[in-house]
Amino acid sequence: MSNQKKQSFLGGAAILAAAVAVVKLIGFFYKIPLNNILDEAGKTYFQTAYEIYNVLLTVSTAGLPLAISKLTSEAHAQGRENEKRKLFRTAIWLFFVLGVVGSALMFFGAGQLAAFQNNSMAYWPIKALAPAVFCVCLLACMRGYTQGQGNMTPTAVSQVLEALCKLGIGLPLAWYLLSLGRGMDIGAAGAILGVTVGTALSMCFLIIYLGTHRDRSRALDVPESSGTLMKKVLAIGIPITLSNSAMSIITIIDTKVILGRLQNGLGLTEVAASALKGQYSYAMDMVNMVASFVYPVTMSLIPFAAAALARKDTREAGRTISAAFRVIAILALPAGVGLSALSTPIMRLILPAHPDSAEAAGPHLQVLGIACIFICLMILTNAILQTYGKEKLPIFTVIIGGITKVVMNYVLVGNPDINIHGAPISTLCCYAVIVLLNLFFVWKYSPEKPHYFQLFAKPVLASVLMGIAAWAVCGFADRALAGHSAYLANAAATLCGILVGVVVYAILVVALRILRAEDVRSIPHGEKLIKLLHLK
């Protein structure tokens, strides 16, 4: 690893963001056809399995890889190469055990887990996804090790490989099983099996990569004992794991509450309740697609900010975190506003096989588009607090937000006049509460105090103007194309709205000088972009 060129924070983020862009493009060609192959109930079976998987995944991989990344970064910055290698050798066994336990729990307890979720038809999807927990545990350890050295490329390649398998195996398998007349639960299991195969192949790739890129140079540092290193990993990783797994656990409880209130409170059947939950899940897919672009920023932020803090360079750490805030503001705000402004046209565009479901999911996305902004900010602020050694605070804020979500869903979803429309409202309130608390703590504990008004005022203004322009153009184009094919007219109008929104926002970003030279200098061809846009 030592002979590799060191990547900057924004350079590393750019590599991961590019990988995420490719992964999401592949995911678009996976989830959109899949949502049209599976009906609303099938979507809920798929989603239920994924939520259980996410809990086990989060417990196994959320905080510990970040701990490895942070400790590896600190050792790498201080030239302690032997300690860095011993840290990885020690951690990989911990992840092996966690993976075996997680996979066994999901595979052998599939029936009980499905019943707990008030969704017995999720049995086979849960079972099909179980082996992925083991593979992802080992993947997470290896990714944390390479990211801690400032090398984001292996993570990027493995993510793309994982997505390709999901598309090339999961989607055809789901279609084939349903064409044979199998039930929606079996179709969902086939789709999710592609995820399992993808994680297995990605794991094999990283094993080969690490084996062929071993740094065999000698170092003079004497590493600490394995027990001491393990205590350090757990001291950092466990609080992060608790904060992240808290939300995953709350999501599972929330799904149980939603399906339970629809069935017991409103008297719907399991299939009918699953169909309504599926409409909400369709909208959440779009939000999650946007939110996933934040993780490259946080994965790159932690090792570089931690290295700066290890050098006692609080100014550099502050600059890195401010740059992360600006990047998220520039990306998340217009994305969330755009989803909200064009909510129903977007759902019509991506769900041609289920037009009624698209209409029903539109109002969900209108609320969730705004929630998307808070979700992105939550991911970033959690990472910042963790970087500053305040790993326990996100546990507190996430639990407060999660309780808000569960209580609101119990009250709103059980109301016949609101029912499933209470789910996006509670989601918005949940993440708004978390972000407001996180922003306060970030300001309190940052050596270099962030100026929130300066960071967000211009992106908010540009995003609102962009949303108005996109909404107006989409509506005008839709009326102008009336009389043509309903789907094609909506598709053309939606794409016109999106295109105009992008152009308007790009102009406003330059005109309002939202971007700074330091934000783009480290990305490929950054200097040329600085000159072209006259950035300062």
Low-confidence segments, given as residue ranges, are 1-7
Which percent bin holds the helix content? over 70%
Q: On the 0-100 scale, what is the average pLDDT?
A: 84
- Main structural class: mainly alpha
- As a whole number of angstroms, the C-alpha radius of gyration is 23 Å
* Share of residues in strands: under 5%
Shape: globular
Helices and strands, in order, run as HHHHHHHHHHHHHHHHHHHH
The biggest sheet, with number of strands, parallel, antiparallel or mixed sense and barrel status, is: none
Count the strands? 0
Q: How many distinct domains?
A: 2
Number of helices: 20
Could you tell me how far the N terminus lies from the C terminus, measured between alpha carbons in angstroms?
34 Å
What does this structure look like?
The chain is mostly helical and 536 residues long. The chain has helices spanning 9-37, 40-61, 64-77, 81-108, 110-116, 123-148, 153-179, 184-212, 226-265, 270-291, 294-310, 314-341, 343-350, 355-387, 393-413, 422-445, 452-480, 486-511, 517-520, 526-533. The chain is globular, with a radius of gyration of 23 Å. 56% of the residues are buried.
How do the helices and strands line up, and which of them pair or pack?
Blueprint: H1 9-37, H2 40-61, H3 64-77, H4 81-108, H5 110-116, H6 123-148, H7 153-179, H8 184-212, H9 226-265, H10 270-291, H11 294-310, H12 314-341, H13 343-350, H14 355-387, H15 393-413, H16 422-445, H17 452-480, H18 486-511, H19 517-520, H20 526-533
Helix pairs in contact: 1-7, 1-11, 2-4, 2-6, 2-8, 2-9, 2-10, 3-4, 3-6, 3-9, 3-11, 4-6, 4-9, 5-6, 6-8, 7-8, 9-10, 9-15, 10-12, 10-14, 11-12, 11-14, 12-14, 12-17, 13-14, 13-18, 14-16, 15-16, 17-18
